[in-house]
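Board notes (copied after class):
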Amino acid sequence: MFHTLHRSSAAIMLGIGVLHTGLTPIFYSKPSLGALWFAGTGLAAMFLAWLNVALWRAGGSDPWIRRLGRVANVGFALFMAIGLSIMPSPQAVLFLVVALLLAGAAFANPMVRAR
């Protein structure tokens, strides 16, 4: 169950990241600090998704990937919680929910436990 949740959450996070980054030129007509932050958040989401793929593919056999994945998931969830408090929006809620699912799955997934 947690393995499926982990994979699904990573796929959703990847999709959100691609969409977020891809929409940057639509929402921002010229380069700006806001555009950079918007695109950067999407890129961070994609990176987090791929890090989670590495995490469940390694299956807990690599302690560095396990630690990095768990720290990154918790850190991104905290980042999204702060973002939601500053800018309440549906996409911030979605980011936070998926980040919390990834963080929970990274700790609960039996395929990621230390061997």
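Comment from the instructor: The helical segments are 2-22, 24-27, 33-58, 63-86, 90-108. The mean pLDDT is 90.
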